[in-house]
Structures are given as structure tokens and as C-alpha cells.
Amino acid sequence: MSSEPTDNPLQFGEIVVSFAEAKFRYGARKNDCPHDKLLLDDHGEIVECGDCKKQVGTYWAFSKVLQGIITKNEKLLQERRALKTDRETVIHTAAAKRVEEAWRRRKHAPMCPHCSRGIFATDGFGGSSIDKDFELARRAREIEERRAKRESNAPTQPPTAPNLRVIS
Q1: Residue 16 — φ and ψ, nearest 5°?
Q2: Residue 147 CB-density burial (10 A; 0-12 exposed, 13-18 middle, 19+ buried)
Q3: Burial letters for 68-99: b for 16+ Cβ neighbours within 10 Å, e otherwise?
Q4: Contact indicator for 18, 9 with CB cutoff of 8 Å
Q5: Does the predicted TM-score (pTM) go above 0.85?
Q6: What pLDDT, in 10s, does the model give residues 135-167?
Q7: Mean pLDDT: which of 8-22, 65-79, 115-129 is highest?
């Protein structure tokens, strides 16, 4: 009686667990205990339900625990995705608040971080866009060009004092 493993094996360190396709399904009766509280007896190597005190099969208990782990893992992954979305929303909200505060100032205008000139609402701020990767590459290139220019303009010899003549 061989069973083929399913396509989604679970890996816990070096242990890999796969569920075989069930040939027969045995459903629980309506009034039966769900056996959610399992007690493990290390001496007798038996598993029993903490609620109804019936002995349950070790394979069934292992499957129940594994299904609980799978369910909990799926919930944690969903929570992680939700937290990531919330974090991105908070970052955008914080940036929007900073921009709004900058525009609401009465005596000061926001300043361009690159050219240090003021930016006004009539300048069409946000009316056009550029690819982020392209802009990041351009900035990196400009930084490298400025560094190379500084190195090429650096004096090779220390400056000497000019020849001074005293005129009397």
C-alpha cells in the first residue's frame, strides 16, 4: 500500500516532511472531541487528549501538530506582508507631511537639495518624473566626477611663497 507524496514538502532543518495523498478519508463524528489539547506521555510513549482523556494515534497527533504549525506560519506570513505595506504607507505619509509643512511656511520656500534654489508651487513641482534607477545612477556618476575633479585639481607640490621685494 504505497502512497505518493504531495508537491509541497515542509522542511524543518534537515528533516523533510511530505503528506501522502489520502486514499481513504475518515471524518470525525459531529459530537466527537476535536482533541485540541494533546498530552504526551514520555514513559508509555502514548498521546492522549487532555479534554476527553481518549488515547489518539501518534501519526494523527503528529499530523495535527504539523497542520497547526502550517496554519500559524501562514498567518505570520500574512501579518508580515501587512506590516510591510503599513510601513511603506507610514513612510509615504511622513514624506507627505514634511512636504506639506515646507509649503505652508510663510517666509521660507522649500529648497532644492541639489542646486540650493527655492522651489515654488508655480515651478510645476511633481509635474514630471524620472526613472529612479536612472536618477540614482546619474547621482552616483556626478559624485564620482566631483571626486575625480578634486583629485586632479589637488596641488602636487605645496604652494610656495611669492618672491617679495622691498621697495624703498
Answers
A1: -115, 130
A2: exposed
A3: eeeeeeeeeeeeeeeeeeeeeeeeeeeeeeee
A4: yes
A5: no
A6: 889 989 999 999 998 888 876 666 565 665 666
A7: 65-79
> Whole-angstrom Cα distance, residue 106 to residue 34?
68
Q: How far apart are CA 45 and CA 22, in angstroms?
A: 26
C-alpha cell at 155: 596641488
Residue at grid coordinates 515654488: 120
Query: What would the grid cell of residue 54 be?
Result: 481518549
Backbone angles phi, psi at 19, to 5 degrees: -95, 135
10 beta partners: 17
Nearest to 19 by CA among 55, 49, 57, 62: 62
Tell me the C-alpha distance between 51 and 67, whole Å.
Answer: 20
8-state DSSP, 154: S
Nearest to 50 by CA among 72, 30, 35, 60: 35
For residue 39, list its beta bridge partners.
48
- Strand stretches in the chain, DSSP E: 10-12, 15-17, 38-41, 46-49, 55-56
- Percentage of the chain lying above the pLDDT 70 cut: 76
